[in-house]
Prior knowledge:
about 35% helix; alpha+beta; two-stranded antiparallel ribbon
Amino acid sequence: MSSAPDSALIPTIQAYWTSFIRSKDPNTYKLAASPRWETFGTVDLRRVLFPNDPKKVRMESVPADQRVRCAYLSGIAASIGQ
């Protein structure tokens, strides 16, 4: 296994991806200790947070300041060719 700071996350992320590929659901074959990967909704805006410690992987709400930045970029996307 790699010695990079985030290498401890490899099994966690790999299990989510493998689960998604096998069953089209990242939760079916995820690691038992990993949180359930919830759907990113348009109202609650929850996402998976992957800090450099697999024990701290969790679902979180997108912070308000980031929502503002995303709304701004979405608003100008066509004018900047995105």
